[in-house]
Amino acid sequence: MHTSLPDFRMPNEEQVHLAAEGFRLLADPTRIKILWALLQGESSVACLAELVGAAPTAVSQHLAKLRLAGLVRGRREGTFVYYSAADIHVRHLLDEALFHADHADRDLPDHPSDDLSTHRPPERSPVG
User: Fold this and answer.
1) How much is the pTM?
2) Nearest-CA neighbor of 127 among 59, 81, 69?
């Protein structure tokens, strides 16, 4: 049935595996808060810990996992490491997830499939 569709494509196994791993690692509220904060700009472990209300050691462990999944990057400056979201895809992924959550939370109707003109991510606000 699907193979008769002219533009039908399945992702390859590596893409599916990497996407599933990314979603698995995002299935944690603290990690979502960390990524949200990093989308506002580069940050240190200590600053992120304060923003998300977690111990620096816990934030460091979360960052290590997010880095392994390719969702964040670290930049060393002396003895400090400053983290940032890996790329624009991370922003789109998190924006879309939070936009979907906002729709579900407020029981908003879906958009027509061909009209995303009203599609805007939730307002950026302080994490917490």
Assistant:
1) 0.77
2) 59
Strand-pair partners of 43:
83
Distances (CA, A) of 111 to 99, 104, 117: 12, 13, 9
Give residue-wise pLDDT tens across range 80-89: 999 999 999 9
Q: Average the pLDDT over 8-24 and give the result.
A: 90
Nearest to 47 by CA among 21, 84, 91, 18: 84
Side-by-side strand order, sheet with 72-77: 43-44, 80-85, 72-77
| Token pair for 46 | 């200590």
**81 Cβ neighbours under 8 A, 6+ residues apart:** 44, 45, 74, 75
What is the separation of C-alpha 96 from the centre of its chain, rounded to a whole number of angstroms? Answer: 9
Neighbours of 24 (CB within 10 A): 11
How far apart CA 27 and CA 39 sit, in angstroms, is: 17
